[in-house]
Amino acid sequence: MITLESVSRTYGDFTAVDHVTFTAQPGRVTGFLGPNGAGKSTTMRIVVGLTHPTTGSATVSGRRYVDLPNPGREVGVLLDASAQHAGRTGREILTIAQRFMGLPRARVEEVLDRVGLTPDESARRVRDYSLGMRQRLGLATALIGDPSVLILDEPANGLDPAGIRWMRGLLRDFADDGGTVLLSSHLLHEVEVVADDLVVIGNGRIVAQGAKSDLLASAGSMVRTTDRDVLARALDAAGIPMSHVGTDALMVQADADQVGHTAFAAGVPVLELRAADGAGLEEMFLQLTADTQRDNQPEGALA
Ligand SMILES: Nc1ncnc2c1ncn2[C@@H]1O[C@H](COP(=O)(O)OP(=O)(O)OP(=O)(O)O)[C@@H](O)[C@H]1O
Q: What Pfam families does the record tag this protein with (predicted)?
């Protein structure tokens, strides 16, 4: 399990990550989505102790990453597939990791096989690897310690379609065996296919999180209100599932009529109420992060 509690990171006056709170659960793939510069990499670096949070805490299996005695046995990390020694062969890189973690030598062959790098490829220097091969090697390094948690930043980057499908199967199997997967990507469709839970970040803040099925529920409404918590309690009391969006909105699994009546009965002012239109993940992603997009602000986007 990965737990973040009110994690923030500032650089001078700039807030890269702003009170981020979420949990990635065992047995589930959690997709971490957001536009360029939203704060995904910074958040992941905080989880693995490469960046210090300004406030808040992040733990893996209940402990801070730096307090894990043999972190590679607990957490497999792939943040940058190009951050590997270019002059070493793939096999050498894995052998160093195997020795460092005190693993049996056979683990090197096992993970090479698991990520589909051939003996010939594993004998080549990393500088001669394609990006897809580097991703496979990075994944092999993440998997070699047989961890229960995987943290992967854009792992499908550079993979061909067959490779993307292979990666999807690998992550699914890992989660089905009880592992925790936190996966960032800008490949929205890829995340939509593989993730069980979604965390969407924009401008350093979480703008939506919850089960993918809830967030993408086709019959649903988006409601914006001055008193989100009161409305959330009223909807909850009526047995209507919802996800929180930004600071003042809810994505509700009920039609606008039902949401309007519930809000009226609870005495909550509604600022905006409309059908979610069964929007796919891409539409939802664009709407939720509209104020952080560089291009093409969608019409009627939530602030
Ligand atoms: N060391 C740093 N000093 C100053 N600003 C930084 C530093 N590291 C990150 N940032 C800023 O923090 C913001 C978030 O960056 P981050 O790399 O976490 O975004 P991201 O969501 O991973 O983006 P992308 O999808 O483009 O990789 C960006 O505006 C970035 O410029």
A: ABC_tran
Residue nearest to atom 2 of ligand 1 (CA): 11
Domain 202-292 is of which CATH architecture?
2-Layer Sandwich (3.30)
Phi, psi of 202 (to 5 degrees): -145, 135
The domain ranges of the chain are 2-200, 202-292
Of 13, 41, 45, 293, the one to substitute when testing ligand 1's pocket (max ligand atoms within 8 A of C-beta) is 41
In this structure, the residues whose C-beta lies within 6 A of any atom of ligand 1 are: 11, 16, 34, 36-42, 186
pTM: 0.79
* Cα 43 to ligand 1 centroid, rounded to whole Å: 9
Q: Is the dihedral of CA 89, 91, 97, 102 positive or negative?
A: negative
User: At a CB cut-off of 8 Å and minimum separation 6, what does 171 contact?
Assistant: 29, 150, 152, 181, 183, 194
Q: Whose CA is nearest to atom 17 of ligand 1?
A: 41
The CATH number corresponding to 2-200 among 3.40.1190.10, 3.40.50.300, 2.40.260.10, 3.30.1330.60 equals 3.40.50.300
**Among 42, 183, 191, which residue has the most ligand 1 atoms within 8 Å of its CB, making it the best to mutate?**
42
Highest mean pLDDT of the ranges 29-38, 50-59, 282-291: 50-59
* Ligand 1 atom closest to the CA of 9, numbered from 1: 12
**What's the rounded mean pLDDT across residues 7-27?**
97
d(CA 29, CA 34): 16
Residue nearest to atom 31 of ligand 1 (CA): 37
Q: What is the pLDDT of residue 262?
A: 95
pLDDT tens per residue across span 133-150:
999 999 999 999 999 999
Domains 2-200 and 202-292 fall in the same CATH topology: no
Region 66-73: what's the mean pLDDT?
Answer: 92
Average pLDDT, the chain: 87
What is the DSSP secondary structure assignment for residue 54, as one 8-state letter? S
Residue 205 CB burial class (10 angstroms; 0-12, 13-18, ≥19) = buried
Say if the ipTM goes beyond 0.85: yes
